[in-house]
Amino acid sequence: MASTDKASSRDRLLDAAARLSYRDGVFVGVEALCREAGVSKRSMYQLFDSKDAVLAASLERRIPAYQTRLTHPHPESATPRERILYVFERLEKDSVDDGFRGCPYLAALVELKDPGHPANAVARRVKDGLRSSFRADAERGGARDPELLARQLVLVFDGASARAGAGVEHLADGLATATATVLLDAAGVD
Has this prediction a pTM greater than 0.85? Predict the structure, then answer.
């Protein structure tokens, strides 16, 4: 029974960290985290070395869902251009949700200035993975400079995500996809 309670407490902590850090930022306090999870501080420290470790594990656990959201529903039959543009279309759809706060991995990178922070490492790996995915599709699509295009696409994605998450920009009009399309055209991606 104790292992079930620990697994349940662990999951509740990770879920609470995901909710609170996305809504309020990564510097949520231990007391707020434990209160949200319904877990004592003692239990938290039995499961994790630190609150930083909880945040890193929470970000890590969300990677598959994040990547799935950004993956074209028919990746085998979609062209590289369609796979790239789908990422921006998904961002635009997500951005109209009331609780949208932008990319959680970008937010972690912006808030956590210490590159040695465990959550910073997770977030950097995810953002590097997005760039690598863009680069691979850009290369398959015949881009003249796949690495430059990938960097440009990440810049547009992160900028659009941050501005929409801050409520400064509304993406429902297709601005992010239109901007990515201009970059794809200029790079020669079919």
Answer: yes
